[in-house]
C-alpha cells in the first residue's frame, strides 16, 4: 500500500498554468524528492496530492483508486507543513493526538499511539509543554508526530527543514532518513535545497517551469543530467558551460573543437550535429591544475578558501557566467594570476543547441562503489 | 534620573532630562483634559449641596464627606433597579453581538466570496450613522414589531449599531491566525465546524474578549438615546435615564447626581478590570514560524 500515480496533472490559477502535464509513478515505500527553483510548481503539485488544491485536469491515483475528489484523510495521506502549523493552545500531547481525537478514537488507544510516536521522535519529556516553549527542531518533530500518529500510507513534506538553522537541518535530515527506514511508508518531500534532495531521496524529481525536467536516483542526475537545466541545478557550484563546435561523430564519441583543441568526448553521437554549436559541460570539481586532456588558461578574479576546498571564479571572454573551479584542500591559487587548468574528456557533458544532453557513456553501477568489506 | 535611565536601558529608549520632562508634561496635559470632568464630578459628589452655589466657588471641598453616596439611595429609591437594567441590557446586547459577530468575522477573515467587499463596506457605512439620525424610522419599526416599552427596544438597536465595529475588529484579529492551521486540521480530517470550535475559537479568545469589552462599554454608554425614545416605563429605565430622577421640580441634587453617576459606572469598571486579566497576548506563539 502507498503506491501513487500522477497522470497528466495540470493546474491553472486563472490564466497562469503552474503545473503543465505532469505524469509520475511513485513506488510503495519510496522516498521521492521534488526539487526545483521557486515557482516551478513543486509545492502546488504537493498540495494537489494532499487534497488541498483541486487539479485542473489529470488523475491522482493511490493504490489503483482515483482520489481526485476525496478528502485528504480518505486518501490515506498526512502532511507536514513548512511552517509546522501547530495548534498553539494545545499541549504537545494534544497536538499529536489531534487527528485521533477527530476520528474519535478511544482514550486508551490515543494515549498508546501518541506515546509511541513521541518515543520515536524523542518527545517523551515534552508532552505536557505548549509549542511556544519548544525549539524549532522540536516543533518540527511535533508536526511530524501529528503526521505519523495516523499511520498514513503516504507522507507529504513541504520544505519541512527550511526554517531550521544549518546544523539542525543536518540532524533532522538524518532523523527523517531514519524515520523513513523505520516506518517503511512512501514519502514525498518538497525542497529547493539540493543537498536535502541528494542525501535523502531514492529518486529525485526535478521540476522546471511546471514540467518534470528529469526523474532519477541522485547519482544518475549528477552523472547523467538529461538537459542543461538539471546539469546546472544539481551540483554545487554549478556546472561550467563552454561553447564548442562539433567536428565529427565516431563510435567512441563526439569530436569537438574547443579553443583549437580537438577533444573526443565519450557520448552517444547523433545524426546531423556535425558542424553545429554545442555546449560542453564540466563540473568545477573535475578541473585540475596543470596540463591534461583539455587545457585552458584562466585568471581567477575571486578565490574562496574553505579549508576543505578552494573555489576559484574567473571571467571568460564572451560569457556572462563565471568559470568556476573547485580544488581539494587549501591550494595555492592566487587572484589575478593566470593559471593553466585542465580537465579530462571522460568527465565532460555535451548538450545540443536545445539544451538536451547527448547521453554519456558512463557506467553508473561502476560509479557507485560496492561497500568495502572490512577484514575481521 | 535613575528611575528612567540606567545601564540596562537600550540606547533607543534613552532620553535627555528635558525630553523626559516634555513627555510627562504632554501626558499630564492630555490626561487632565480627559479626566478633569471626572475629577470635578467626584469633588462635587463630596461637597454639601449648599457649597455648590457659593461664591467665590471653591474647587476643593470644605468639610467634604461621602454623605451623598448614602442619601442618593433614599432620594431615588429605584436607583439600584436602574443599574440592574443597564447591566441587563448591556449584557444581553453583548451576548447577541458576540453570537452573531464571531462566526461572521471568521467567515469574513477566512473565506472569500462574491460581494464580500461590498458587505464589509456596507457595515462601515452603517456605523457612520449614529442611532440618533435613524430614530424616527427605528421608532416606526419598533412600534410595528411591538417592541416599544420593552427591554428589547433598547437591546436590539443597541446591538445592531455595535455589530459593524465588532466585525471589523474581530476580522482583523482572525486574519492574523495562520491559514496553515486550517489546512493542517483539514489534512487531519477535521470538519470546518470542528476546526472552528477546537482550533480557531481558542486562539481567537483574546480578540473575542476585546470585542466583548468594547461591545459592553459601547452598549453601556449608548443606551441613552434609545432608552429615552423607545421606552417610557420607569421599571425598564437604564442608568442614564434614571439619573434624571435627581432633577427635581425646583432644584437639581447635584452632589447626589454625581455620586449616582460614579456608583453607576462602578460595576462596569469592576467587571472590565477583571476581564482584562484574560487579555493575554501572544497566544499564537509557536503556531508557525514567523
Automatic annotation (TrEMBL), chain A:
PANTHER family registered for this protein in UniProt: MALTODEXTRIN IMPORT ATP-BINDING PROTEIN MSMX, MALTOSE_MALTODEXTRIN IMPORT ATP-BINDING PROTEIN MALK
GO molecular function: ABC-type maltose transporter activity; ATP binding; ATP hydrolysis activity
NCBIfam families, A to Z: PRK11650.1
UniProt-recorded name of the protein: sn-glycerol-3-phosphate ABC transporter ATP-binding protein UgpC
Source superkingdom: Bacteria
SUPFAM superfamilies noted in UniProt: MOP-like (SSF50331), P-loop containing nucleoside triphosphate hydrolases (SSF52540)
Similarity field: Belongs to the ABC transporter superfamily.
Keywords (A to Z) from UniProt: ATP-binding, Cell inner membrane, Cell membrane, Membrane, Nucleotide-binding, Transport
Pfam short name (any one): OB_MalK
Domain ABC transporter: 4-234
GO cellular component: ATP-binding cassette (ABC) transporter complex, substrate-binding subunit-containing; maltose transport complex
Organism, as annotated: Paracoccus aurantiacus
Amino acid at each position: 500500500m502507498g503506491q501513487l500515480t500522477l497522470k497528466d496533472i495540470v493546474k491553472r490559477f486563472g490564466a497562469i498554468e503552474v503545473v503543465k502535464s505532469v505524469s509520475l509513478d511513485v513506488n510503495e515505500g519510496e522516498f521521492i524528492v521534488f526539487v526545483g527553483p521557486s515557482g516551478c510548481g513543486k509545492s502546488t503539485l504537493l498540495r494537489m496530492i494532499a487534497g488541498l488544491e483541486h487539479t485542473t485536469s489529470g488523475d491522482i491515483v493511490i493504490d489503483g483508486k482515483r482520489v481526485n475528489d476525496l478528502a485528504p484523510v480518505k486518501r490515506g495521506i498526512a502532511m507536514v507543513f513548512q511552517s509546522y502549523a501547530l495548534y498553539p493552545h494545545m499541549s504537545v500531547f494534544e497536538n499529536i493526538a489531534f487527528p485521533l481525537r477527530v476520528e474519535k478514537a478511544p482514550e486508551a488507544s490515543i494515549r498508546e499511539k501518541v506515546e509511541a510516536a513521541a518515543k520515536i521522535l524523542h518527545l517523551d519529556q515534552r508532552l505536557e509543554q505548549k509549542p511556544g516553549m519548544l525549539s524549532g527542531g522540536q516543533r518540527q518533530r511535533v508536526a511530524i508526530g501529528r503526521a505519523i500518529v495516523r499511520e498514513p500510507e503516504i507522507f507529504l513534506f513541504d520544505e519541512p527543514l527550511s526554517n531550521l538553522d544549518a546544523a539542525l537541518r543536518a540532524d533532522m535530515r538524518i532523523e527523517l532518513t531514519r524515520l523513513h527506514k523505520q516506518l517503511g511508508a512512501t514519502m514525498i518531500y518538497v525542497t529547493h535545497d539540493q543537498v536535502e534532495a541528494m542525501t535523502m531521496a531514492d529518486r529525485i524529481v526535478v521540476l522546471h517551469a511546471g514540467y518534470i525536467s528529469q526523474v532519477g536516483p541522485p547519482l544518475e542526475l549528477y552523472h547523467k543530467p538529461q538537459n542543461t537545466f538539471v546539469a546546472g541545478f544539481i551540483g554545487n557550484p554549478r556546472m561550467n558551460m563552454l561553447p564548442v563546435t562539433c567536428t565529427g561523430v565516431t563510435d567512441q564519441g563526439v569530436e569537438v573543437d574547443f579553443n583549437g583543441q580537438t577533444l573526443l568526448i565519450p557520448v552517444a553521437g547523433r545524426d546531423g550535429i556535425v558542424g553545429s554549436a554545442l555546449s560542453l559541460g564540466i563540473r568545477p570539481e573535475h578541473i585540475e591544475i596543470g596540463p591534461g586532456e583539455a587545457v585552458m588558461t584562466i585568471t581567477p578574479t575571486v578565490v574562496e578558501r574553505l579549508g576543505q576546498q578552494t573555489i576559484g571564479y574567473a571571467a571568460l571572454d564572451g560569457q556572462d557566467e563565471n568559470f568556476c573551479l573547485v580544488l581539494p584542500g587549501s591550494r595555492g591559487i592566487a587572484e589575478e594570476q593566470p593559471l593553466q587548468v585542465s580537465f579530462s574528456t571522460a568527465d565532460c557533458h555535451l548538450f545540443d543547441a536545445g539544451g538536451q544532453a547527448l547521453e554519456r557513456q558512463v557506467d553508473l553501477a561502476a560509479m557507485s562503489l560496492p561497500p568495502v568489506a572490512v577484514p575481521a | 534620573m535613575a528611575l528612567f535611565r540606567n545601564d540596562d536601558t537600550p540606547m533607543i529608549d534613552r532620553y535627555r532630562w528635558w525630553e523626559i520632562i516634555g513627555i510627562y508634561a504632554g501626558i499630564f496635559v492630555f490626561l487632565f483634559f480627559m479626566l478633569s470632568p471626572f475629577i470635578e464630578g467626584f469633588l462635587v459628589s463630596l461637597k454639601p449641596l449648599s457649597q455648590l452655589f457659593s461664591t467665590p466657588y471653591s474647587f476643593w471641598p470644605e468639610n467634604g464627606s461621602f454623605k451623598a453616596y448614602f442619601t442618593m439611595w433614599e432620594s431615588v429609591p429605584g436607583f439600584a433597579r436602574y443599574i440592574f437594567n443597564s447591566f441587563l441590557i448591556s449584557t444581553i446586547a453583548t451576548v447577541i453581538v458576540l453570537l452573531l459577530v464571531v462566526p461572521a468575522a471568521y467567515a469574513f477573515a477566512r473565506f472569500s466570496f462574491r460581494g464580500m467587499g461590498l458587505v464589509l463596506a456596507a457595515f462601515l457605512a452603517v456605523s457612520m450613522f449614529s442611532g440618533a439620525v435613524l430614530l424616527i424610522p427605528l421608532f416606526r419599526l419598533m412600534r410595528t414589531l411591538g417592541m416599544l416599552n420593552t427591554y428589547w427596544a433598547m437591546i436590539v438597536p443597541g446591538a445592531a449599531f455595535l455589530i459593524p465595529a465588532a466585525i471589523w475588529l474581530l476580522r482583523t484579529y482572525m486574519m492574523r491566525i495562520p491559514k496553515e492551521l486550517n489546512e493542517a486540521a483539514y489534512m487531519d480530517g477535521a470538519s470546518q465546524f470542528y476546526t472552528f470550535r477546537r482550533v480557531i475559537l481558542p486562539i481567537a479568545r483574546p480578540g473575542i474578549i476585546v470585542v466583548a469589552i468594547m461591545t459592553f462599554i459601547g452598549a453601556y454608554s449608548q443606551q441613552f438615546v434609545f432608552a429615552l425614545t423607545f421606552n417610557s416605563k420607569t421599571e425598564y429605565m437604564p442608568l442614564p435615564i434614571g439619573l434624571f430622577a435627581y432633577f427635581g421640580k425646583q432644584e437639581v441634587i447635584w452632589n447626589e447626581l454625581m455620586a449616582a453617576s460614579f456608583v453607576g459606572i462602578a460595576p462596569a469598571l469592576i467587571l472590565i478590570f477583571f476581564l482584562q486579566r484574560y487579555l493575554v497576548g501572544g497566544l499564537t506563539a509557536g503556531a508557525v514560524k514567523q
